[in-house]
Amino acid sequence: MAAMTGRAVLVAAALAALALGARAMDDEMAELAKMLHDNCGEETGVDLGLVDKLKCYIKCIMETAGMMSDGEMDVEAVLALLPDDMRRKNEPSLRACGTQKGADDCDTAFLTQVCWQKANKADYFLI
């Protein structure tokens, strides 16, 4: 994990945003998101418990890469992982996101990644 690229950082954020983007939605959108989540889970046979584990997976990636420690983001470490052009372009928004505190460290990692995704849509992708 030490060789993580800046793109991998943003990939983790994409995964997080897909997992629980409904948090910021109104009731109607949240209901639609739940319906899609449940229907696609049933159709594909995916273990929906895996979606819940995603938050802790993201936390693990962030801690292993040195981007998070004791529930706090290390923005300097995040920026150091990014290529120069991405760092210059995304630094203000990454700093503005800071650490988005959640119910626990897994939730904090997830919420911070959601903030990154929203702020850096052009550079955000999922592998």
UniProtKB/TrEMBL annotation:
It comes from the Eukaryota. This is Antennal binding protein X. It holds the Pfam family PBP_GOBP. Residues 1-24 form the signal peptide. Keywords: Signal.
